[in-house]
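Batch manifest line 683
LIGAND: zinc ion
JOB: complex structure
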Amino acid sequence: MFSKLIIPLIMMIISVTACKNAKQPVPASADEFKYFVEQFEDIRILKYKLPGFDSLSLQQKKYIYYLSQASIAGRDILWDQNFRYNLQIRKTIEAIIDNYSGDKEISDYKAFIVYAKRMFFANGIHHHYSSDKFKPGFPEAYFKVLVKETDQSKLPLAKGQTVDQLISVLSAVMFDEKLFARKVELRAGADLVAESASNFYEGVTQKEVEGFYKANVVTNDPHPVSLGLNSKLVKDKGKLTEEIYKSGGKYGAAIDNIIQWLQKAISVAETDSQKKELGLLIEYYKTGDLKKWDEYNVAWAKNTDSMVDYINGFIETYEDPLGMKATWEAIVDYTDLEATKRTKIITENAQWFEDNSPIEPRYRKEKVTGVAAKVINIAMLGGDCYPASPLGINLPNADWIRKEVGSKSVTLANITNAYDVASQGNGFLEEFAADQAEVERIKKYETVADALHTDLHECVGHASGKLAEGTDPNALKNYASALEEARADLFALYFMMDKKIIELGLLPNEEAAKAAYDAYLRNGLLTQIVRIKPGKNIEQAHMRNRSAVCHWVYEKGKSENVVEFFMKYSKTYVRINDYQKLRTLFGDLLKEIQRVKSEGDFEGGKKIIEDYGVKIDPKLHAEMLDRYARLSLAPYTGFVNPMLTPVYDPDGAITDVKVEYTNDFLGQMMYYGKNYSFLSGSN
Ligand SMILES: [Zn+2]
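JOB STATUS: finished
ARTIFACT:
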């Protein structure tokens, strides 16, 4: 049951107390680069390197710098989108960390800091992956003490709000387990809108939302806009209204700051077409016009040859239970020239993959256009990409642009590398692999197989296939994300075992493909559930995808023992007995999921995800959690950003951009809070 909102909504005006230009966190020593930064609860923090940054031209460095500022400027937007009390809570916690003068050595204060770090990591008070609200590890009464003993002038009080009122509002929000319990509710049968705490809707039911957007669909539009992408839908005096994210509109103050940095970026952009593209993005941010957004995306997708690129906007819809509204995200990146050769091979053969895909021929694309694939290094992560970063990105999302113009696909080399290096020798593989041969295979081929899986997933997987005429692109609703990820994964898995891959020089031999299958099945059938609390279901789209794929092929291949579970010393393991047959099963499922997507078969898609992707065997779950706990590892990883600082000459012109790294996760968060906060958190 969901308790209705009992907290008075108070309009807040935050007093400006932040001291601008506070010092960046302490840089890490330059001579010894260590990826590991720190670990708390279920989170591991790493840093990433900027290889080759020094050899970029001054213009490219300036361009990266301005875009990096635009990547952090929208940070507050995401916090508010995730939950409408997030900003007020964060600002209160920042005030406490900065100003509380009591004992900081006691266990309650230490638990408070862990809570703060978890919140900073999740961009809010709900877990970034499981979506559950954090349970503070300190008593409610102690929170009151912390706020009371903090310099009151630094608290984010609303106009006319007393400190006691602030405490009572935030205490209820943070400590009452029944209130706002989940950020994104995806359980079948729930009112996905009313029962999710994320802030895309207010005062409306799922039915009303669906009715509103159905009425706004332009039928038979060959270039449909992404309806509802950049707005909050609210009920105002009984009438449904969209509050558009734009300059002068919702989140206007943060958007204006983004625009300001994008304008500077235009002045040093590499090409005229990039300048034009940035101009379109600014126009979109000024107007909120979704046609302009598509126009921008077409320009962005076509710009494939620049060294420096970026993402900046309302893009992914994972956090909206209805999969329509996008969270704000940003990255800045530059090309990894060496590794890009690999994805170029895939791109050049994109049509071959499409023509040989095991899907129904009528759902194949006759012409796979412009599947641009690049390996990049990240220079800055922002919004929904920070601190938890993706490993690969394929954009834009609009189906018609992907079909007519193509999409850009990137693999994040320096991020992936940080993961791999930081994870070597932590005992995880040895604990869960079926035997020593598997351990050896994985150690030998993990890096190359992982990279190829990501490349195939992003470059050709997401880009493949097409919808049947007249299919509603939103038909799969809350199952769309998981099914789309499954489709891309299956595409990669199916082709990795193809001899064409060895012919193209993408894998050294079949053993490498076997390593990819071993790792995928072991993760999907066994280890990924260590990220989930006992008694809970799988909610996150990528995890649902992996679970659904693995359990489906396991079930379908059971009579022939293609994949088997077995016990050794009372521990459960997974073994693949027939790799070729497994490959065929991957192909069968890819065919079915492509059909589901192409035809908009909601029930068919629901069945795959609900039957194979959601539930966890409680006995196996307990065993996995126990074995995992003994390894003392954190299941989630995120990153601190490097610190980019311009070097000026006496006339104020930038002569260089300096890169430094930090080991101070909390310090970086506090720094961003002081220097990049443009929204008040008013409800
Ligand atoms: Zn994907």
